[in-house]
Amino acid sequence: MPHRDPLASARGNRVPMLIASLALALPLIGATPLTGRAAQHSSRTGGHAHTVIIESMSFTPRVLVVHRGDRITWINKDPFPHTVTSAAGKFDSHEISPDASWTYVARKAGEYHYVCTLHVTMKGVLEVR
Ligand SMILES: [Cu+2]
C-alpha cells in the first residue's frame, strides 16, 4: 500500500495556490482610489465621521447623507442651546449647550427629518443609506 495518496496530495496543493491567488488580488482591491462612488461605498463598512455645524439658528449642512455605521456629530456654535430631535422620535440629543456637541451613530437606513425643539424654524435631514 502506498504511503501517500496521490489524490490527497493534489488536493493539498490547491489550497496554497488559492491563497497565493487571493494574496495577489487583495493589493489590487486595496489600491482602488477612494474617490467618488468608491469612497461612498467604502464608508458602508468604515464607520465614517461626519459633522453638522449648528450656527446662526441653522444646521449646516441642512441635508446630510451618510451610511449605516457612520457617526454624526452636531456642534453647537451658537451662544445658546439647541436640540437635534428626530420628528419621528428616532433620536433626541436634548439640549446641546453652547460649544458642546452631540454624537449619534446611524444604525438603520432611512430619511430622518429632525428639528430643534427650542426653535421650530430650525430643520435638518439625516439620510442614512
Ligand atoms: Cu435651536
What does this structure look like?
With 129 residues, the protein is an alpha/beta fold. It has two domains: 6-38; 47-128, Cupredoxins -  blue copper proteins (Immunoglobulin-like), CATH 2.60.40.420. 28% of the residues lie in helices and 34% in strands. The chain contains two helices and eight strands, in the order H-H-E-E-E-E-E-E-E-E. The strands form two sheets. Strands 2-1-4-6 form a four-stranded mixed β-sheet, with no helix packed on it. A four-stranded mixed β-sheet has the order 3-8-7-5, with no helix packed on it. The longest helix has 25 residues, at 6-30. The radius of gyration is 24 Å and the shape is globular. The site of copper (II) ion has 5 residues, from strand 8.
Sum up the structure in keywords:
129 residues; alpha/beta; Immunoglobulin-like; four-stranded mixed sheet; 2 helices; 8 strands; binds copper (II) ion
Summarize the SSE layout with pairings.
Elements: H1 6-30, H2 36-46, E1 49-55, E2 58-60, E3 63-66, E4 71-76, E5 85-86, E6 101-105, E7 110-116, E8 119-128
The protein binds copper (II) ion (CU).
Residues 82, 116, 118-119, 122 line the site of copper (II) ion.
Summarize the structure.
With 129 residues, the chain is α/β, with parallel strands linked by helices.
Assembly state of the chains shown: single chain
Which molecules are bound besides the chains?
Answer: copper (II) ion
Number of helices: 2
Instruction: Please name the CATH architecture of the largest domain.
Output: Sandwich
Helix/strand structural class: alpha/beta
Poorly predicted parts: 6-43
